[in-house]
Amino acid sequence: YWQLIYNVQQNRDDIVNTASDSLTEALEEANVLFDGVSRTREAALDAQFLVLASDLGKEKAKQLNSNTSFFNQVAFCDFLFLFVGLNWMEDDEQDELSGCDDNVPLSFWETVQKEASSWMLRAETFHFIFGSFKSEPSAPKHRLDHQKKVHKMEENGDMPTKLRKVDLNSNQEATEKEVERILGLLQMYFRKYPDTPVSYFEFVIDPNSFSRTVENIFYVS
């Protein structure tokens, strides 16, 4: 992948040339390499090459001509205005557009969308079923009743014990100690069995505790 990316970067001018098939050949070579991808780093290099190939493809497309005339963005915009019945090149029309309200650009985009939608396949609109039901607002809670309840609990001695303030530093220290402990276990395993890889799932999963499994995944990460 590194060699492929390097060759593409070095031959950038030749690839952008419209008469060259170098970009197609590079993409075919990348497809062959992708069949053997098995590691994350290789997949990242494949994505990096795709970004590079996309940029070159865009530059190559800009140089394509139709009827011996290059694509002109200004002329295309002018064509869009003429398509919806406007001509911004004329001075009178340009002054009129500069002082128009929001209805003109809205009408412009509606016309363009109507034409473009006939050439595109669109997915069906998704509607939430919750919209078919009328939600009923909950009854307001009176603060006075709450105060009476608290006062009654204080008289009966039923007030819950206040939670102590959480010590973030102690939690952080406990996390660091647990991470160091797990790292020590991994290092000990590799010293004892240097040629045997560790099964990630067997290492983190506690079959008797879901919460402990989640903690193990967190610490290992």
Number of strands: 2
- SS-derived structural category: mainly alpha
Please estimate the helix content. Answer: 55-70%
Report the portion of residues in β strands: under 5%
Q: Please tally the helical runs, counting DSSP H or I stretches of 4 or more residues.
A: 11
Principal-axes geometry comes out as flat
**Average pLDDT number:** 77
Taking the alpha carbons of the first and last residues, their distance comes to: 28 Å
The H-and-E topology, N to C, reads as HHHHEEHHHHHHH
Radius of gyration: 33 Å
Q: Runs with pLDDT <50, length 5+?
A: none
Strand order of the largest sheet: 1-2
Give the gist of this structure.
The protein is mainly alpha-helical and 221 residues long. It has helices at 2-10, 12-16, 22-34, 40-62, 73-83, 91-98, 103-117, 143-156, 168-192, 200-204, 210-220, and strands at residues 65-66, 69-70. It contains eleven helices and two strands.
Structure description:
With 221 residues, the protein is mainly α. 63% of the residues lie in helices and 2% in strands. It has helices at 2-10, 12-16, 22-34, 40-62, 73-83, 91-98, 103-117, 143-156, 168-192, 200-204, 210-220; strands at 65-66, 69-70. It has a two-stranded antiparallel sheet. β1 and β2 form a beta hairpin. α1 packs parallel to α4 and α3 (22-34) packs antiparallel against α4 (40-62). The two termini are 28 Å apart.
Topology, element by element:
Layout: H1 2-10, H2 12-16, H3 22-34, H4 40-62, E1 65-66, E2 69-70, H5 73-83, H6 91-98, H7 103-117, H8 143-156, H9 168-192, H10 200-204, H11 210-220
Antiparallel strand pairs: 1-2
